[in-house]
Design goal:
This protein is mainly beta. About 5% of the residues lie in helices and about 40% in strands. It has one domain (about 5-130, about 140-205). Residues about 1-35 have low confidence and may be disordered.
Length: about 220
Amino acid sequence: MFFSFRFLACIAVSLICGCMGEDADNGTDHRAGQDPESVTATAVDVSGDAAFAFIDVELVSVTFSDTHIEVSIQLLNIPEEFVYDASNLSANSLEYDWAVSFDVDFDGSLANDLVLSVSNFKFEEEQQKRAEMLAFTQNNIWRMNEMGSGASMIGNLSAEVNGNSLTITVAKDDYEELSAISNTVPFLYEGYYATSGSVYRDLLPDDGGYFVPVDE
């Protein structure tokens, strides 16, 4: 299973159709409840293994509670400004994506995954501009289909930047599908950047599989 092409192509098709928006280890689990009603799973990557620091993940920490899911993506560096809708990028192209996919059916594939994604898609007639990270992003929850070859948007999520961390938060009560995400569900991260006809990625785990939280 290789996450990038299939999942990101699905997002691209959905957005066009107007549905909107060195080897790393396998991660280490540092699950420790911050209160009796929450637990955190953390996957750790080797930093410096991606071409661009703003997609180069150092760790992904997912906190599960009865009411919310919070995903913290620690990146090597988040610059003050990004180039959006670059003139050297073709229209109807995915430009940026920071995504965490949850294998809610435990089948080790994209099929039926729930995906929390912060992305930017260059549409027709968009002009190049510079802005902070979240100025033009689409922040969404996606459901992969049963073949893992298509995606439908479930709804929106909250995202914020603090230093070099991108934090995604969603309330479980907002969408019934989120009840399938728990502290035992495997997950993976992908950072994506397209420019000048080239595509760059960072994965956690690096092999494109899933990080499996340790059941303690």
